[in-house]
Specification:
By secondary structure, the protein is an all-beta fold. It contains one helix and 17 strands. The longest helix is centred in the middle third of the chain and has 4 residues, at 201-204.
Length: 370
């Protein structure tokens, strides 16, 4: 609904952004330049595609797209906004819709350019609840059981931090991807075969690494680009964590495998992350919970967001729809406990209110009130 809940004691970023109904879709950090001073802020994306600065609405970025009535097919290929990435200067952003189309605003494009990244609206079967049926669907699960083919997340490669995209990767609900150049043209496999090891361009080349694919399942939920832009981690709805690349010990996402090395599978942390292979159709109507003949445990899975730790070389956090947060890697304060040791963490059960998570480093904590 747009509400933000401080967990622990991060700096206070307050504002009036609140919709009162289920339309908030993503949250990103940003800075707002006011009279030459840098002000930390948060940006909330709504399902209509609008981006809202929380504390400093005067920094809202002019955008030439707004999706209006997102319940009708007549707005194809706009669809429903679901993911936002801010530019390096916080003066622009990119938005992904469930049709797979990418829109841009502010410093991410020239004023004369169309907000739609060319060709990204031509991704075939993605869109409004296109069911995963027939031979595509896992035979152990209801067909279609609520499962759909749609875009779920994306990353923007901007290796020189000039707020202009070098390319995009769009993640689909079954784990498939579309790799676009900055002009929206699909990048052929092998394009960056000669690039240095762990170069960000390798992520734009669909043939450079092994990527996870969840055949027959509506289970891919999020894809997060490491701050170095050298690797990504994909989150599935059961809290499965999938680093890409998965087999390069030199890559900064290798820690997400949680093993000592490629030849020594001993877990670095003996207690792993939770893995919840269960579907919550609607916990407020308990009479149909567990009826897996009606819905799929994949599409009704609860994990939604993944974020890398801030101020820590390696580490990540995941969040489920009820607000539960879990931590992995050196960011975990107690090695045997996957739950971060923060106070005042909200928990919304039986309501699936939690949408997105942002992490602030320890040096951005406020002193507690006297």
């Amino acid at each position: 609904m747009g509400g933000r809940h401080r967990v622990g004691n991060p700096i206070s970023i307050m504002g009036s952004v609140y919709f009162g109904f289920d339309i908030a879709r993503d949250l990103e950090r940003a800075v707002c330049d006011i009279d030459g001073a840098t002000n930390e802020d948060l940006v909330v994306l709504d399902g209509y595609g609008a981006a809202h600065f929380v504390q400093n609405p005067g920094c809202d970025i002019m955008q030439m797209f707004y999706f209006g009535d997102v319940k009708t097919m007549e707005f194809f290929p706009q669809g429903r906004a679901l993911d936002i990435e801010m530019s390096a200067d916080s003066k622009g952003f990119w938005v992904l819709t469930d049709f797979g189309a990418i829109y841009r605003a502010g410093s991410t494009k020239d004023p004369s350019e169309d907000p739609l990244v060319p060709n990204t609206d031509r991704t075939g079967v993605l869109g409004f609840d296109i069911p995963i049926i027939g031979d595509l669907r896992d035979p152990a699960l209801p067909n279609p059981g609520g499962a759909t083919m749609r875009a779920v997340s994306f990353i923007v490669i901007d290796a020189d931090h000039d707020s202009r995209a070098d390319g995009y990767v769009v993640l689909v609900s079954m784990g498939g991807r579309v790799h676009f150049g900055p002009d929206g043209v699909e990048i052929p496999p092998g394009t960056y075969a000669s690039a240095p090891d762990d170069d960000p361009s390798k992520l734009l080349d669909s043939g450079a690494y092994v990527w996870p694919f969840f055949s027959g399942l509506d289970i891919a939920r999020d894809m997060e680009l490491h701050p170095t832009q050298k690797g990504v981690v994909i989150l599935d709805g059961w809290d499965g964590i999938h680093p890409v690349p998965v087999d390069r010990i030199s890559n900064p996402v290798y820690f997400a495998r949680n093993d000592m090395s490629l030849v020594d599978p001993t877990p670095v942390q003996a207690v792993g992350m939770p893995y919840v292979v269960m579907g919550y159709d609607d916990p407020t109507t308990p009479e149909d919970e567990g009826d897996h003949d009606r819905y799929g445990i994949d599409v009704a899975s609860i994990f939604r967001d993944l974020e890398f730790s801030a101020g820590c070389e390696n580490g990540l956090y995941t969040m489920e729809a009820f607000g539960g947060v879990f931590v992995m890697g050196p960011a975990r304060p107690i090695d045997e406990e996957p739950v971060p040791q923060f106070g005042n963490s909200p928990y919304f059960f039986p309501f699936q209110y939690a949408e997105s998570l942002e992490i602030l480093p320890f040096d951005e904590a406020e002193e507690p009130a006297p």
